[in-house]
């Protein structure tokens, strides 16, 4: 056989796009559902909007369910990654790129041109896609839909239906099932239904509640301390006050405690909405995250820069808010600033005193750098006379943050680029909440991924399927536990490991980080000699 | 500066190189004819299955080697002149060494079957085997059926690979039950059923007689020895074990038998030449181990050990308690200590076997029938903690202790159903009725 013929033979692709009849029908149903949404977007006037909305979402749901059943229930329980790198959708093929571009376009329209979706301007009635969702919105909250209601509904539907698919895919794995059930519950209840019911309360003059997803903490919920939000909560009686206090307690008490006990996974892969979408609808793209060392370096600088930005922005917002009416609160501008300064300094000093040796060079320089910057700004405030904090008007900071971080980074890039950069781009490179929880996880948490003695065969499944781009194998093949601030504890590395090497655990802080040069199984004297050096 | 040359960039050679670099500033060169960079051989199957790309099987990024001053040379060593300490390459290049480590791994066994070199016949060991499989079995139109010869770990992996592309597979196993030279009967039989559940045409007690060609020199069919049956197929996978890949050494002064003969220090008969990994053959087996150990883990351990010797701390290869693992389709297998199949089982070795109703989980615990000392455990479908069993084996715990504390060794993911109490009561019952 000539080489040429061989070559042409090797071009034959494994049958990646061979869908079964059932799967084709399922795709067709889903496409019809999406087609109804598209028609609405193009301003088709449906006679009974409620009915057509139900048909549309129903078809998308049923299509996904049928597809998932045929894909997973026809096979034995086990890891279902066959052909992941052959499929156009999941390997940055044409389908992947098209999906990425459509999603990105959707986010740009959603954030910046909602009128194209049919958002009624200046109090006019909605048209187009948004008007299709009016009946559901009126049913839930009594108000017509907005672009955020449409987005929230589609987001919730996506988490529910892809969550179901994910549960079938991992039906042999109870950790995965419980975790997915949890994100589905929190999305449907806390992010979607409760805020809608809360706005029912606002029908009474005693309440003026802002949209508030209780599980969404500052700094992920960066608008919690905006003037309108605080005003709204403070003018809504005890309930509003309770919610504000809960928000503050979440930051300083609840989340550090839970992170200490279970690692940041309690939030990032069990509760969070961003994580929820990433783990369900984004599951097919988890392997696309970059595992390069350079990506890790970029990640550390980027995510901590966003964190500093959000701390500065929030401080400025509260500072300005307190300044409006100095006699209204017991907290004055100066005490507040002083408080923030003391808190940040405490965190910095405690970390440097107790954990200096655990930090690698980059992290240490970064921490010192940021600390100096913040300190300098504070000094400038106290020595200067400017009314602006940090030289910039707080409102300008806030709108820059909202635009660049809140909209472009977390939405357009974070979700729009799923099929290109992987499903956790925002969580990994941008989320300030993930940065704080990650810091806690790295510094004081019982959580770690334990590696199993000498059993690693360096195959790379764990690293490939880590959505956070952690090179899990680099640790596993050294017999070293994985203690990384970015780990969201999704548990997929442990699931795809063919040799039972990885286990997510909450254990003692002692010996949590344990690099080994010689692995278990070799000469015990050699292990002692080399490892105890 | 002393020049250390390593032939072979698999786990053994690369581990040796990494440790030599940690311990010294010696000049290091790794030679490979297979691939430019180190990759995990055990992961080749996942490339064909579409779980990973080739680059994902490389444990170190490409900049790693230069940063650690490890030279990589692509080339095929044809002869070794041990007098002048020179390697001669197929392309007539030469390279001098001060110390040489032979880490050339294995090659698939071929037992002289008629047709074993036809197009479409391949092993599954080298990167080139994978390329070959991709060429001859890209999908089930090009490859209507594949026949796998040899029921070991590589055979069942190849079956899983082909199955992932919906290529029908006939699996010829010489033994009366899958891998029962190693696995106890209960486990072996469970894997038989699991293989069949994946719609593999499993033929036990079946040997290959010959592979028949078509007019173009491609595989057309195989004939089964026992029945004479002809099975039409396009691809034949030869997975009847591996043997040391040392043909190029046979003409040198280095002593060889099946593998490169080494003493406990992994030294060959020629000073400054060492052999590690699959290709090394111990003069005397270590404990119950085989003289040639073709396992990922032992390759790594020999690499760790030889690096010490080369860097001035001469120590013997003295592996700890035996352990191993594998995955049979969806069922993971782990073993700690020694559990023998019915063939090679010593008289003193007694077994306790427990199997779950769903037929995907079981364990076999081996103990000494006179002293009750725990000897080893096999698990299918349940993950166990290496460290715990290593400790118990060192402490020579008795089997009652191990059964009573089994839950301490569990390594399954959180929230998994556990079976220790069920296993323990089965264990207790067995003795009341016995």
Automatic annotation (TrEMBL), chain A:
<keyword id="KW-0472">Membrane</keyword>
<keyword id="KW-0812">Transmembrane</keyword>
<feature type="domain" description="4Fe-4S ferredoxin-type">
    <location>
        <begin position="447"/>
        <end position="475"/>
    </location>
</feature>
<dbReference type="InterPro" id="IPR017896">
    <property type="entry name" value="4Fe4S_Fe-S-bd"/>
</dbReference>
<keyword id="KW-0479">Metal-binding</keyword>
<feature type="transmembrane region" description="Helical">
    <location>
        <begin position="334"/>
        <end position="353"/>
    </location>
</feature>
<feature type="transmembrane region" description="Helical">
    <location>
        <begin position="239"/>
        <end position="260"/>
    </location>
</feature>
<feature type="transmembrane region" description="Helical">
    <location>
        <begin position="365"/>
        <end position="383"/>
    </location>
</feature>
<feature type="transmembrane region" description="Helical">
    <location>
        <begin position="50"/>
        <end position="73"/>
    </location>
</feature>
<keyword id="KW-0004">4Fe-4S</keyword>
<dbReference type="Pfam" id="PF13187">
    <property type="entry name" value="Fer4_9"/>
</dbReference>
<protein>
    <submittedName>
        <fullName>4Fe-4S binding protein</fullName>
    </submittedName>
</protein>
<keyword id="KW-0249">Electron transport</keyword>
<feature type="transmembrane region" description="Helical">
    <location>
        <begin position="180"/>
        <end position="198"/>
    </location>
</feature>
<keyword id="KW-0408">Iron</keyword>
<dbReference type="InterPro" id="IPR017900">
    <property type="entry name" value="4Fe4S_Fe_S_CS"/>
</dbReference>
<feature type="domain" description="4Fe-4S ferredoxin-type">
    <location>
        <begin position="478"/>
        <end position="507"/>
    </location>
</feature>
<dbReference type="InterPro" id="IPR051684">
    <property type="entry name" value="Electron_Trans/Redox"/>
</dbReference>
<keyword id="KW-0813">Transport</keyword>
<feature type="transmembrane region" description="Helical">
    <location>
        <begin position="25"/>
        <end position="44"/>
    </location>
</feature>
<feature type="transmembrane region" description="Helical">
    <location>
        <begin position="94"/>
        <end position="113"/>
    </location>
</feature>
<keyword id="KW-1133">Transmembrane helix</keyword>
Automatic annotation (TrEMBL), chain B:
<dbReference type="InterPro" id="IPR050260">
    <property type="entry name" value="FAD-bd_OxRdtase"/>
</dbReference>
<feature type="domain" description="FAD/NAD(P)-binding">
    <location>
        <begin position="3"/>
        <end position="288"/>
    </location>
</feature>
<dbReference type="Pfam" id="PF07992">
    <property type="entry name" value="Pyr_redox_2"/>
</dbReference>
<comment type="similarity">
    <text>Belongs to the FAD-dependent oxidoreductase family.</text>
</comment>
<dbReference type="InterPro" id="IPR036188">
    <property type="entry name" value="FAD/NAD-bd_sf"/>
</dbReference>
<dbReference type="InterPro" id="IPR023753">
    <property type="entry name" value="FAD/NAD-binding_dom"/>
</dbReference>
<keyword id="KW-0274">FAD</keyword>
<protein>
    <submittedName>
        <fullName>NAD(P)/FAD-dependent oxidoreductase</fullName>
    </submittedName>
</protein>
<keyword id="KW-0285">Flavoprotein</keyword>
């Amino acid at each position: 056989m000539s080489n040429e013929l061989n070559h042409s033979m090797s071009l034959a692709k494994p049958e990646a796009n061979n869908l079964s009849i059932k799967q084709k029908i399922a795709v067709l149903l889903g496409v019809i559902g999406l087609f109804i949404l598209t028609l609405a977007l193009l301003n088709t006037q449906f006679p009974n909007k409620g009915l057509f909305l139900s048909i549309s979402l129903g078809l998308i749901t049923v299509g996904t369910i049928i597809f998932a059943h045929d894909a997973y229930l026809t096979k034995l329980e086990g890891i279902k990654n066959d052909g992941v790198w052959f499929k156009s959708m999941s390997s940055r093929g044409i389908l992947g790129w098209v999906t990425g571009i459509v999603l990105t376009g959707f986010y740009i329209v959603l954030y910046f041109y909602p009128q194209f979706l049919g958002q009624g301007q200046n109090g006019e009635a909605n048209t187009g896609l948004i008007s299709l969702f009016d009946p559901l919105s009126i049913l839930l909250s009594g108000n017509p839909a907005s672009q955020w209601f449409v987005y929230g509904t589609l987001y919730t539907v996506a988490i529910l239906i892809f969550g179901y698919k994910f549960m079938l895919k991992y039906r042999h794995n109870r950790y995965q099932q419980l975790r997915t059930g949890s994100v589905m519950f929190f999305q449907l209840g806390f992010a979607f239904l409760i805020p809608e019911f809360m706005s029912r309360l606002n029908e009474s003059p005693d309440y003026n509640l802002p949209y508030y997803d209780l599980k969404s903490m500052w700094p992920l919920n960066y608008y919690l301390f905006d003037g309108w939000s605080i005003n709204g909560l403070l003018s809504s009686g005890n309930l509003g006050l309770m919610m504000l206090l809960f928000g503050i307690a979440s930051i300083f008490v609840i989340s550090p405690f839970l992170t200490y006990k279970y690692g940041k996974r309690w939030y990032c892969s069990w509760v969070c909405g961003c994580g929820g979408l990433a783990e369900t609808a984004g599951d097919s793209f988890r392997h696309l995250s970059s595992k390069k060392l350079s990506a890790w370096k970029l990640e550390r600088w980027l995510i901590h820069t966003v964190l500093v930005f959000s701390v500065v922005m929030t401080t400025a917002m509260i500072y300005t808010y307190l300044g409006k009416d100095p006699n209204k609160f017991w907290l004055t501008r100066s005490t507040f600033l002083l408080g923030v300064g003391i808190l940040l300094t405490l965190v910095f000093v405690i970390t440097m005193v107790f954990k200096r040796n655990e930090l690698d060079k980059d992290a240490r320089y970064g921490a010192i750098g940021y600390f100096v910057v913040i300190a300098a700004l504070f000094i400038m405030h106290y020595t200067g006379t400017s009314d602006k904090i940090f030289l910039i008007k707080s409102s300008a900071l806030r709108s820059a943050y909202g635009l660049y971080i809140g909209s472009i980074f977390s939405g357009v890039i974070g979700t729009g680029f799923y099929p290109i950069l992987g499903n956790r781009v925002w969580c990994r490179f941008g989320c300030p909440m993930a940065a704080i929880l990650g810091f806690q996880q790295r510094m004081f948490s019982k959580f770690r991924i334990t590696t199993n003695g000498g059993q690693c065969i360096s195959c790379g499944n764990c690293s490939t399927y880590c959505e956070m781009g952690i090179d899990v194998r680099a640790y596993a093949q050294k017999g070293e536990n994985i203690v990384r601030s970015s780990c969201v504890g999704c548990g997929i590395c442990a699931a795809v490991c063919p040799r039972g090497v990885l286990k997510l655990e909450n254990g003692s802080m002692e010996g949590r980080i344990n690099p080994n040069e010689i692995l278990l199984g070799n000469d015990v004297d050699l292990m002692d000699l080399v490892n105890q050096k | 500066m002393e020049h250390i040359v390593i032939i072979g960039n698999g786990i053994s050679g690369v581990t040796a190189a990494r440790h030599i670099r940690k311990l010294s500033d010696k000049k290091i060169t790794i030679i490979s004819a297979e691939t430019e960079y180190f990759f995990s051989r055990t992961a080749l199957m996942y490339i064909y299955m579409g779980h990973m790309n080739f680059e994902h099987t490389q444990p170190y990024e490409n900049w790693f080697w230069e940063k650690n001053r490890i030279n990589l040379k692509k080339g095929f060593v044809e002869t070794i002149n041990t007098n002048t300490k020179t390697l001669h390459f197929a392309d007539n290049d030469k390279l001098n060494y001060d110390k040489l480590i032979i880490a050339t791994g294995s090659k698939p066994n071929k037992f002289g079957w008629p047709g074993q070199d036809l197009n479409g016949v391949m092993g599954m060991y080298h990167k080139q085997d994978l390329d070959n499989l991709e060429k001859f079995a890209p999908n089930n139109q090009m490859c209507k059926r594949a026949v796998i010869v040899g029921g070991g770990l590589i055979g069942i992996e190849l079956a899983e690979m082909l199955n992932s592309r919906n290529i029908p597979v006939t699996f010829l196993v010489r033994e009366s039950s899958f891998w029962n030279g190693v696995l106890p009967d209960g486990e072996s039989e469970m894997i038989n059923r699991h293989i069949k559940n994946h719609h593999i045409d499993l033929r036990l007690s079946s040997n290959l007689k010959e592979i028949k060609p078509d007019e173009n020199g491609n595989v057309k069919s195989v004939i089964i020895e026992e029945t004479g049956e002809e099975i039409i197929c396009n691809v034949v996978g030869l997975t009847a074990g591996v043997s040391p890949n040392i043909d190029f050494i046979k003409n040198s002064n280095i002593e060889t038998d099946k593998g490169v003969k080494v003493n406990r220090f992994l030294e060959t008969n020629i000073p400054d030449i060492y052999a590690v990994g699959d290709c090394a053959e111990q003069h005397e087996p270590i404990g119950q181990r085989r003289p040639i150990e073709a396992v990922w883990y032992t390759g790594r351990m020999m690499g760790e050990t030889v690096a010490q010797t080369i860097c001035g701390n001469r120590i013997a290869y003295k592996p700890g308690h035996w352990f191993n693992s594998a995955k049979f389709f969806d069922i993971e297998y782990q073993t700690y200590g020694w559990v023998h199949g019915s063939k090679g089982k010593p008289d003193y070795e007694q077994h306790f076997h427990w199997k779950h109703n769903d037929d995907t989980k079981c364990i076999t615990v081996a103990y000494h029938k006179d002293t009750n000392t725990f000897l080893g455990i096999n698990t299918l479908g349940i993950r166990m903690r290496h460290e715990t069993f290593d400790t118990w084996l060192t402490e020579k715990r008795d089997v009652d202790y191990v059964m009573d504390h089994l839950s301490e060794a569990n390594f399954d993911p959180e929230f998994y159903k556990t079976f220790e109490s069920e296993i323990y009561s089965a264990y207790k019952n067995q003795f009341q009725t016995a």
